[in-house]
């Protein structure tokens, strides 16, 4: 596979940022299943600014003997067994999502992907539990490191709530679409790119002044 003209291999210590959002049927990584997972790949454009280049999403069938928390389902509005969800099992979902991420890792001359999320400990713990449960052998992600847009948002905009950061960043926010894995991942990716690009611009400006 051809390497990109401006790969990210030297930009984030060899890691490719991939924005992940996961919707679940509860907070227990061992008992509550994944219901949705979305992955957004970001890469540099011709000006070396990060942009969204790929979007991937899967609806997932609850794993066998998993527990569904009614309060969590009410919060997300997800009906795990609705026939129009076109859900697949979590092993197939991980295979489907990991393939394009591995390709992006290679073309950007990176060694692994790193999960970017909003309060990402939730997402990375559920992702790791699914990887262990399905005995997935080829996860592209670093097993515990992550980038947190709540922290970055607090630094750049003085806000830590995703909707508030989006508003401060000048992005539209639709409460009716929130808590969909793909929508939240897209908004998180836009915020991440904006903060990283702003920092790069400031760094470049500082160099010209000095």
Can you summarize this structure?
The protein has 210 residues and is an alpha/beta fold.
Overview of this protein structure:
- The mean pLDDT is 93.
- It is built from six helices and five strands, in the order βββααβαβααα.
- A five-stranded mixed sheet has the order 3-2-1-4-5, with helices on both faces.
- α3 (121-134) links the parallel β4 and β5 (141-148).
- Helix content is 40%, strand content 21%.
- With 210 residues, it is of the alpha/beta class.
- 34% of the residues are buried.
- α4 crosses α6.
List descriptors:
alpha/beta; 210 residues; 6 helices; 5 strands; 40% helix
Strand coverage percent: 15-25%
Count of discrete alpha- or pi-helical segments spanning 4 or more residues: 6
Strand order of the largest sheet: 3-2-1-4-5
Round the mean pLDDT to the nearest integer and report it.
93
Main beta sheet: 5 strands, mixed
Spell the H/E element sequence.
Answer: EEEHHEHEHHH
Q: What is the general shape?
A: globular
By helix and strand content, what is the structural category? alpha/beta
How far apart, in Å, are the first and last alpha carbons?
39 Å
Helix content: 40-55%
The total count of strands amounts to: 5
Task: Extract low-pLDDT stretches.
Answer: none
Q: Taking Cα atoms only, what radius of gyration do you get, to the nearest Å?
A: 17 Å
Topology summary:
Elements: E1 15-24, E2 34-44, E3 50-59, H1 70-76, H2 90-107, E4 112-117, H3 121-134, E5 141-148, H4 149-157, H5 162-168, H6 181-209
Parallel strand pairs: 1-4, 4-5
Antiparallel strand pairs: 1-2, 2-3
Helix pairs in contact: 4-6
